[in-house]
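Reopening this ticket.

The earlier resolution said the output was attached, but the attachment link was broken on my side. Pasting everything inline this time so it's all in one place.
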Amino acid sequence: MKDILDKYICKIEGHGYLKLDYNHAKVQLVVDEGERLFEKLLVGRPYLDAPFITARICGVCPTAHTLASISALENAFQVEINKDIEHLRRILLAGQIVQSHALHFFFLAAPDYIGLDNALEIAEKKPEIFKMALALKEIGDDIVRTIGGRQVHPVTPTVGGFTKKFDRKALADLKKRIDANMHLALETLDLAQTFKYPTGNFQFPISNFQSNYNDQSSKIKKDIDSGQAKMTSWRPSEYFALTNGINYDIIGGKITSTEGVRADIQDYSLNIREKVVGHSTAKHATHNKESFMVGALSRVNLQTKFLNSKAKTAIHNFKKIKLPSTNPFHINLAQAIEMVHFMEECSKLLGVMIDGKDPILKVPYKARKSEAAGAIEAPRGTLYHYYEIDDKGIIKNCDIITPTVQNLENIEKDAEFILKNTKKLPEDERYNLLEMLVRAYDPCITCSVH
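Inline output:
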């Protein structure tokens, strides 16, 4: 295996590099950060510490950890929340997803598709895109700040509901800002459709895929538009997400996959198995000893019919891309779809809260000796938290499985698929394509070594 030790993968959250065997098409994604041992850190602490401590696992998706932790504890104590609490939590988590997707889509993934190197170049050469990115990120921040108390590491969500009442006017103002900026999410989706995503054919150099999105003279664009570039299917993956059969699920529901899994969250450990791998400080997760995918593309593949109207209409009008998709580069397209969906979702649920009666935002419960798991959809995929609590409310055991841990095995399998199908390309072109694949997955290294 060839270590690319001097070449950490750029534009991802954290430190990792690729170990490659070009001749035998073998790939290892080496996560090169120390384990942080949050699961052991929680043992011996009061249960109410868990949502606040686990939020510190990650500065990109702290809200997701907070809500997953609360979900597990409420399942353990059999807490029945009301619709008001449920709506506000869905708005809060949707805001977290918009925050994260906007950062990744524009500043980490988009440079691969628009022929630029980084966010600074986008600001200089494509200021209209840069302004759109900042505006969408700000909307996500506004949502999380208004509902969660601040934009990073929320303080208002707690077991049984929320710790403060929300000003109806503040919610109305938030809805107005979301509605006024909805066009930016739709424009982002329009932009995502112009990207020239690598296909399973790889007969063109990666530099052609990175052509400017409005470059009308590119040969690859002409060949794709004319149908002369024949696409081959990607290797099949199993796609996992939470679903409930009612709406585009992001909290609770059933563990569902495209291969027929339909399981209770309490049975997560029977379906998702972690393992230690020798080449990385992050564990890998498998289902039936095989890799699988979680995240935006998995959610869109499994729940297309539950998308809100604007996102659904946009998908219906796609001319060259069909869903469901097996192309991992379409994760970035799915992120753009979800930004449209979740902004519309926030507006819709805020309307319900604004027009409804004064909400009851805290329900009574009793802590007791118990154990349970909870799960939510974080920006990068399904996030599981499990706690065992003693009769004094002290955490005795904890288990957390993050989305990136679940995706790592699949990233390596997709990377090996690319190597097997690019033997005629120069080595540097093949490597660039592998980096582009890793970025498309949006891995969170910090979460993977929690």
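Reporter confirms the inline version is readable. The longest strand covers residues 370-378. Residues 203-232 have pLDDT under 50 and may be disordered.
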